[in-house]
Design goal:
This protein has helices spanning about 10-30, 45-65, 85-100, 110-120, 135-145, 145-150, 160-180, 200-205, 230-240, 250-260, 275-280, 305-315, 325-340, 345-350, 405-419, and strands spanning about 35-40, 70-80, 105, 125-130, 150, 185-190, 215-220, 240-245, 265-270, 290-295, 355-360, 365, 385-390, 390-395. By secondary structure, it is an alpha/beta fold. It folds into two domains: about 30-155 and about 305-365, Response regulator (Rossmann fold, 3-Layer(aba) Sandwich); about 160-295 and about 390-419, Response regulator (Rossmann fold, 3-Layer(aba) Sandwich), CATH 3.40.50.2300. A hairpin with a 2-residue loop joins strand 13 (about 385-390) and strand 14 (about 390-395).
């Protein structure tokens, strides 16, 4: 027979205190989150892709238990940065004061990121911008570490894009020589009239001769340009065989469409605007043979690359491009916070500087001097893809695939050579 023993009042009080204390502690833990702001123009593919990539990362992390038992909570921040840098700053300030974000990622316009960077530093917010590329952003870290140490760039910068363009130029130079019999390959540059493109244009002029090609001219256009007929007509007249188009906004898609419509006899290499599967559907295939750089593509840079690629397509119906580097940001934050065993921003910085993990983009490790992620084969890859009859083929690094010259380009130059 069960006999209940009489409890003392002290025991009841002690038990109640323990129960309430545990309930209070676990209740706070259950309710706490780690808030990450995701910035970008949320009505364009740059902002949408930043957001969707971050959502996938956050969902995976939360399903696995979160970060130190806290769930990741994403805060969408529409910056309107293509139109207004001031709007971007105001949007971030509101998120900090009203949403209490602890980290921020996203955005692509470098002028906006430079302005938001100062706001983040003032508030000791961990800032990992993707995919803004101007070198000035990370130069600030190198020149004034104490102020800008909370900033990291886990995606390519303009200097890396130059390296990739030149390696693609070598591949296309050989192809033009072999298939068209043209010895002197030429490049035309059509670029956004924005800060991040300045070093690309300058360095292509100076470095192109080292790989046996010549830059015949450059045309700088508005990031919201919709008609590039004049520029493309001038490119055709210049005799260029390649168009290098560092254009991160809508102008890049307009260029790809019109280059095909006008049958410009050159291979066009742009950026994320023409390196995602959705563009093929949106243009009814009218961007065949256009190429573009991406953060993540059809190649398995690491074991995480293709699973994320497939998951993003399943979720959105589109493939990830350059802004999808935001997916890796969530895992970088998780790794640094858990390494530091702290949500303190200074502790996170110290841990982030020692991070060495595999992400969807490749191996992720930061240069200690300026907090730029290490770039190139074996590190953060940033491949180049080309549409080839509806398929998005990785064509750089060359071990994954091969560029194809547009048929109208081949016909034009072979006919011209006979005339």
């Amino acid at each position: 027979m069960f006999i209940q023993k009489k409890k003392s009042n002290n025991g009841i009080v002690c038990g109640l205190v323990v129960f309430l204390t545990l309930g209070f502690v676990y209740g706070i833990a259950a309710g706490q989150t780690y808030k990450v702001g995701v910035t970008g123009p949320m009505t364009s593919y740059n902002g949408v892709m930043n957001w969707e990539a971050a959502v996938i990362g956050a969902e995976e992390i939360n399903k696995a238990g979160g970060i130190l038992n806290r769930k990741v909570e994403l805060i969408k921040i529409d910056t309107n940065e293509v139109v207004s840098v001031t709007d971007a700053v105001s949007a971030l300030e509101r998120a900090i004061t009203t949403q209490n974000i602890q980290a921020v990622t996203g955005s692509f316009r470098s002028e906006a990121v430079l302005a938001m960077q100062d706001i983040a530093m003032d508030n000791k917010i961990i800032h990992l911008a993707t995919p803004a590329a101007a070198p000035e952003i990370t130069q600030r870290v190198a020149e004034n570490y104490k102020r800008y140490k909370y900033f990291f760039r886990p995606s390519p910068n303009s200097l890396h894009w130059v390296d990739v363009y030149l390696q693609c130029a070598e591949l296309l130079r050989d192809k033009v020589q072999k298939e068209l019999g043209i010895k002197d390959a030429k490049i035309a540059i059509i670029a956004d009239k924005l800060l991040w493109c300045d070093p690309i244009v300058k360095l292509l002029y100076s470095r192109a001769p080292s790989v046996g090609v010549t830059v015949v001219g450059d045309w700088r256009v508005s990031p919201v340009a919709t008609d590039l007929t004049a520029e493309l007509t001038a490119v055709k007249a210049s005799g260029a065989h390649m168009i290098f188009a560092p254009m991160a906004a809508g102008g890049g898609l307009a260029l790809a469409l019109q280059a095909n419509e006008l049958k410009i006899p050159a291979v066009n290499i742009g950026l994320g605007t023409v390196s995602r599967l959705g563009v093929w559907k949106e243009t009814q295939g009218r961007i065949n043979y256009s190429a573009g750089m991406a953060a993540i593509a059809t190649c398995a840079a690491t074991p995480k690359s293709l699973p994320f690629w497939n998951k993003y397509i399943e979720r959105t119906g589109d493939s990830p491009a350059t802004p999808a580097a935001t997916y890796d940001v969530l895992y970088l934050l998780k790794a640094a916070i858990e390494k530091a065993n702290s949500f303190d921003p200074d502790s996170i910085v110290a841990a982030m500087e020692k991070i060495d993990i595999l992400g969807a983009q490749g191996r992720l490790q930061f240069n200690p001097a300026d907090h730029q992620v290490k770039m190139g084969e074996g590190w953060c890859l940033a491949p180049v893809v080309q549409f080839q009859d509806g398929k998005l083929i990785t064509v750089w690094p060359k071990k994954y695939g091969e560029f194809k010259l547009p048929p109208w380009m081949v016909e034009y130059w072979k006919t011209k050579g006979k005339s």
